[in-house]
Design goal:
Number of strands: 6
Strand order of the largest sheet: 1-2
Order of helices and strands: HHHHEEHHEEHHEE
Bound molecules: zinc ion
Shape: globular
Oligomer: single chain
Structural class: alpha+beta
Strand content: 5-15%
C-alpha cells in the first residue's frame, strides 16, 4: 500500500486515542474522517462502507503502522502510543487476542472492553487554552476507555459516558461493533461534537441530522468524587503508567485487592464495563 504524506499533520496530544487523533486531523485538514482514514492507510478505499477495523484502537499491524507514520509524519513511537496496547504491560486486557475461526486465526479485541464508545471529562476536552486545542479541541484520551479509569483527578470529576442531549454513549457507532467512528463521511462535525444520528425528520427524510452537542459544554453538576476516590484514581494511574513504579502507595480507606488482582494476575476486573465504575467490594 502506498500513500503520500499529508500536506499538514498534527502532533498527538498526551494520552490521545487513535479515534480522537483522526477527528482532530480531519478537522484540521477540513476533510471527512473517512477520507483521512483512507489517506493514512487505515482503509483501502474512501467509501463509508469501507470501515477501519475496531482493533486499530488497540494497535496497528506493522504494515499499516508504517503507512500511518509516513502519511502523518509521526514517529513509529508516536503512532504506537495512540493505541491501547501501550497499556498492555500494566493492564493485560489492553491487547488483542487471537482465536481460530474456521481455518484462519482471527484477531479479536475483548468485546466487553473495546467498544467504539468512550467516557470523557468535559473540561479536559475543552483543551488547555493553546491555539491548536482552541481550534480542534483537547484529546479524547486513551485512558478514558479503560475500566480502572473512572474519574479525572485534575478536574476532580467523575467521567461522563452519555451525551447529555441525545442520551447515547459518546462515540457509539450503533449497528455494528466493527465501525471505528460514527458518521465518518460527515466533514461538518467538530471533533468535540456528538456524532449520534438522530431520527429522520419530515424535512430531511433522507439525511437524518447528527446530534451535534459539544461534549466540552457538558455540565459538571452531579456527584463529585471524594478525596479518597481521587487518591485511589491517582494510584491506579500510577500503576497504569508503563514508566511508573510497579507499586504505588496505597490510598487510604480502600482495600488493595482490586488493583493487585486486575493488574498482576490477570483476574477479572471488578467493574461495570457499561459505566466504568467499580463495583463495591
Ligand atoms: Zn479533566
Ligand atoms: Zn448526542
Amino acid at each position: 500500500m502506498h500513500r503520500a504524506p499529508l500536506p499538514r499533520s498534527l502532533d498527538p496530544l498526551k494520552d490521545e486515542s487513535l479515534p480522537g487523533y483522526l477527528l482532530r486531523l480531519s478537522h484540521r485538514l477540513d476533510q471527512a474522517p473517512a477520507r483521512i482514514m483512507f489517506l493514512t492507510g487505515l482503509t483501502a478505499t474512501g467509501n463509508a462502507q469501507d470501515r477501519a477495523r475496531l482493533s486499530v484502537i488497540v494497535r496497528l499491524d506493522p504494515g499499516t503502522a508504517a503507512v500511518f507514520s509516513t502519511t502523518t509524519q509521526l514517529t513509529p513511537e508516536e503512532t504506537s502510543a495512540l493505541g491501547l496496547n501501550a497499556f498492555a504491560s500494566r493492564y493485560p486486557y489492553a491487547t488483542l487476542s487471537y482465536r481460530i475461526r474456521g481455518r484462519t486465526p482471527a484477531m479479536l479485541p475483548e468485546r466487553w472492553l473495546f467498544t467504539t464508545a468512550t467516557r470523557y471529562c468535559p473540561r479536559c476536552l475543552a483543551g488547555d487554552g493553546s491555539a491548536i486545542q482552541e481550534e480542534h479541541g483537547g484529546a479524547w484520551r486513551r485512558s478514558w476507555r479503560l475500566p480502572p479509569v473512572i474519574a479525572c483527578s485534575r478536574h476532580r470529576v467523575f467521567l461522563h459516558h452519555l451525551c447529555p442531549h441525545c442520551r447515547q454513549p459518546a462515540h457509539l457507532a450503533p449497528g455494528t461493533s466493527t465501525r471505528l467512528l460514527a458518521r465518518i463521511k460527515d466533514h461538518r462535525l467538530h471533533p468535540l461534537q456528538c456524532r449520534t444520528t438522530l431520527p429522520a425528520t419530515g424535512n430531511r427524510p433522507f439525511a437524518p441530522p447528527s446530534c451535534g452537542f459539544r461534549f466540552d459544554t457538558a455540565s459538571d453538576a452531579g456527584a463529585q468524587p471524594t478525596t479518597e476516590q481521587l487518591a485511589l484514581q491517582e494510584r491506579l494511574f500510577t500503576l497504569l503508567n508503563a514508566d511508573g513504579p510497579a507499586q504505588a502507595p496505597k490510598a487510604s480507606g480502600y482495600r488493595s485487592g482490586w488493583t493487585s488482582t486486575s493488574f498482576k494476575s490477570g483476574g477479572s476486573p471488578r467493574c461495570c464495563p457499561a459505566h466504568g465504575r467499580p463495583e463495591p467490594n
